[in-house]
TrEMBL record:
Gene source species: Ottowia beijingensis
Domain of life, source organism: Bacteria
Alphabetically ordered keywords of this record: Dioxygenase, Oxidoreductase
Pfam families hit by this protein: 2OG-FeII_Oxy_2
Fe2OG dioxygenase domain sequence ranges: 94-191
InterPro entries with a match to the protein in the record: AlkB-like, AlkB-like_sf, ALKBH3, Oxoglu/Fe-dep_dioxygenase_dom
GO MF terms held by the record: dioxygenase activity
Name of the protein: Alpha-ketoglutarate-dependent dioxygenase AlkB
GO biological process, one term: DNA alkylation repair
Length: 252
């Protein structure tokens, strides 16, 4: 069935190419007055949280507020479904969660990063719908080279492939001009890849299957470590000259 929003979906701008669709920008997927309504509904409704993260030898505030909504949560705001329909029109996928970011003004930002992919379904896109003030996003190849700057207009959708998280970083830089608030809705498909070794072990039954389940649980726990637990782990590992994962990444 055609979504009402596919009527608005215009020419996409391809920013990065890869075998999974790369990174592309759809400038006007939802009319501005519609996203203004969603913005007004979400701002007071969402339980925004602030986070703190380690940065070098300090613990700093993450410069934006965040929230997360499961797309099967019966309590989810109605406009999340409408936003999902708009995203499905340009980037169809079995999305499971929406990560929300609130940039209160131009001082809020997200540092250059790639989204953590260990718990995202391989091959599935990440689609970001913008509401509120327009903000620039920088997209930079990890191997070096110059960054592309794309203005994320309200009602636009930026689609990034899973594969692009390995080749490119993205971020929303701070802006010195006076700016109103912006909300981004990042739709993702959660579900991590089970390594072939573990899959075979699980299928074999008996003791190996139990070992697999143990490894699986450990993996899930690591994936959902709260920031504070990560900080504690980092400090512990730092004391013995190690590190946790691939370092702290700012993403969902
Ligand atoms: O706000 C945006 O457009 C980007 C957000 C982002 O990169 C993230 O949540 O991982
Ligand atoms: Mn991101």
């Amino acid at each position: 069935m055609q979504s009402q929003y596919s009527l608005f979906a215009d020419e996409a701008v391809q920013l990065v190419h890869d075998a999974e669709g790369g990174i592309r920008y759809h400038p006007a997927c939802v009319p501005e007055e519609v996203v203004a309504g969603w913005f007004a509904a979400l701002l007071p409704l969402v339980p925004w949280r602030s986070e703190r993260r380690p940065m070098y030898d300090r613990i700093v505030d993450v410069p934006r507020l965040m929230a997360s909504v499961a797309l099967n949560d019966p309590e989810r705001p109605a406009c999340i479904d409408a936003a999902l329909a708009a995203v499905q029109a340009v980037a169809p996928a079995p999305y499971t969660r929406a990560g929300l970011n609130l940039y209160r003004d131009g001082r809020d930002s997200v540092a250059m990063h790639n989204d953590r992919i260990h718990d995202l379904a391989p091959g599935q896109p990440i689609a970001i719908l913008s509401l509120g003030a327009a903000r620039d996003m920088l997209i930079k190849p990890k191997r070096g080279g110059s960054a592309q700057r794309v203005r994320l207009a309200p009602g636009s959708v930026l689609v990034m492939s899973h594969a692009a998280q390995r080749t490119h970083d993205h971020g929303i830089p701070k802006c010195s001009a006076p700016l109103g608030p912006r909300i981004s809705l990042a739709f993702r498909v959660r579900g991590f890849r089970v390594p072939a070794f573990h899959r075979r072990a699980a299928e074999s039954g008996g003791r190996r299957a139990a070992l697999f389940q143990q490894a699986d649980r450990r993996h899930q726990q690591r994936a959902h470590l709260r920031p504070v637990a990560r900080i504690q782990l980092q400090q512990r590992y730092a004391a013995v000259g190690g590190h946790v994962g691939r370092g702290i990444r700012q993403s969902s």
